[in-house]
Amino acid sequence: KVVLFEERFKRHDNDTWKRWLYTGVTRAEEELLIVG
């Protein structure tokens, strides 16, 4: 189970943020919850 909080930090540029989301999504084996 993976829980992602879809928050952008000031230090993250667009590419870093996309990689962070991709990593979380691909790590979820059974369940993914995205909180925005």
From TrEMBL:
Residues 2-35 form the UvrD-like helicase C-terminal domain. It comes from the Bacteria. InterPro entries: P-loop_NTPase, UvrD-like_helicase_C. Pfam families: UvrD_C_2. This is UvrD-like helicase C-terminal domain-containing protein.
